[in-house]
Request: fold
Amino acid sequence: MLKSVQDSPLHRIANPRSVAFFGASNNITSMGTSQLLALLDMGYPGAVYPVHPKLEQVQGLKAYQSVLDLPEAPDLAVLVLPTRLVPEVIDQCGRRGIKRAVVVSGGFDEHGDQGRELQQQLDQAAERHGIRYLGPNCLGVAAPHNQVNTTFLPYEARPGFIGMASQSGSFVTQMFDYLDKFGLGFSVAMSVGNEANLDLVDVIEYLAVEPHTKVIALYVESLRRGRRFLEVAREVSPHKPIVALYVGGSEAGRRASLSHTGALAGPDRLYDGVFRQAGVIRARTLEEMFDFCWALADCPVPAGDRVVIQTHSGGPGATAADACGRAGLQLPPVSQATRQKLAPYIPPTTSLNNPVDVTYTKNPLEYLLEMPKVLLADEGYDGMIFYYLVPEGAVKRALLAMGLDPDQAAAQAEAMLEQQAAAIKEMVSASGKPLVGFSFRTRDDAFIRRLQDQGVVVLPSGERAAAAMAALVNYGRLRSKVLAAPWPAGT
Amino acid sequence: MSEIESIIEQGLARGQGALSEYWSKKVLAAAGVPVTREELAGDADQAVALAGEIGFPVALKACSWRLMHKSEAGAVALNLTGADAVRMAYERVAGAADELEGVLVQEMVAGSRELVAGLIRDPQFGACVMVGLGGVLTEVLQDTAFRVAPLDLGEAQDMISELRCAAMLERFRGQAAVDRQELGRMLIALGGLGLEHPAVAEIDVNPIIADRQGRLKAADALVVLRGGDHA
Reply:
């Protein structure tokens, strides 16, 4: 593990004090211009030096004919240039003292013999000057805490805690808005492209010590340094959870082999084993990956797999229970002692199973605070899945019925929801156990938004909540296993 | 030179692309993997005598490194219960292979639970170990788990528990629970062979049969060599 974030070659790519930008112009439809504008839109505080052979100004900034003319050696160069120019420009960057680059241009190793030759020239230029770079054929980095974004889309989410390394640029840029819908965001997200110089493993090592990152997301099509990945991920995952979405595993990829073992070694099964060995949680879909990241970042690790579900609606509770069963989670019945503790909050006719399905409570705060507190305190449960439904409209209606005028009712409703969300987060944190909520209402709902902003995980369905809880359980098991044994085994 | 190294050396010296079942099992046994009791016979009389020593029922198998998939080649006769049966099977089995080293006379392990294990070399991960459900359904169900070598016992146990057929390793239809520690040690040994012997390209141990007491024995094995003739 790196001692500090400054030791990573990626530090000054995500956190440059100044940037040289190649390939931006005043033509707003060009890719390079979009990328420069995305950086400026972030309110990037450092100096930006557009380099352009002809223009005197680019997007209102003074432009330079050559990188050699710059008044200082910037921390980072971003290249959105025709492929054939890249090796020469990297060489010039090196001569000007630049040590880090993002090479957006494609057309290298993925593009036949000519591309491979250009890659060799690029390697030589970078080597000559000790330049470390992301790409080629990548979108670079979004580091919202540092107000850095080299991708071509504006960063629309808030700065967050999910660090990402992606072999697809789209799963960086096109996730900005997706994450924002849950109140989430990236700490640092990197598109690694062809990984000619810095690869996925380098990004994991960086994110492991990057202070805003609480959890690491990986989009993997193929791991080039397989054994190094295993080694690094085993070191990192017990301290910072890693969630991987791997999709390279089509059975068509099976190798020609003389043994049955070889014929059975489809890449999907192999990666499955490698991830488990590395302590990495595997997600099957992109939605799952970010669900798992969220739960792993905001919830404590459960001691076991015994879950209690609380709901006040039959269907949502039943689907969550069904999904728990399929995810390998246990749903033990409610103990006699806990039944007695819940008795004051529920009508005597309620039958208490798991899910605890309360159709009626005298006081909604008892449903939201007192009952989960009792259930979370039960030593027979390791975690809780909770169905949330508190529509702001219903709260306002109740306040209106109590005689408040509409403005007062709206203000009062907001204040009440805020207070409740804070109290729920406090109650859950104090329990020391994970609670994963779900609701069919989204972040547009005032209560759900406030819960999420308090750090309560609220997912869009019981199935997704159950899968996230299973990921937490799984992480706990893999972490114990990884911590119990040094790598390689037997040392 | 260790026993394993010298077996591999001899195979490579003869230009072999693989070791025969007999030598493959010698390698496994030297690495600590339990294998079936067996001897090579050069003629029918010797086969009958060996069968008497090993105890009926026995299996006869043509033994040649060229025979990587024996049952398809008609080179196997199972459950031979007496001397006549051995004598009758001998000529058929012996005729099923080129470069015959002999006919393997082998104990039959009684047990209905079959597992498979093996070693591959992956371009990214290097030596990787597999365990799975064995027998005729291996390819159909593909119930397998993989790990990168080396493994320790904890990792091997995690790997075994990942199998859908893991419940079959508990007490099962009147048979004792499978010795999971033993199975774990087999997987560790396979990984060790991969790491210590670069000339080993792949290994199949298929099937591993669990007997009624839950003890495991490798009933067939194949060690594929790197750099030899695979025609």
DSSP finds seven helices and eleven strands in chain B. The helical segments of chain B are 3-13, 21-30, 44-54, 83-94, 138-141, 153-161, 180-196.
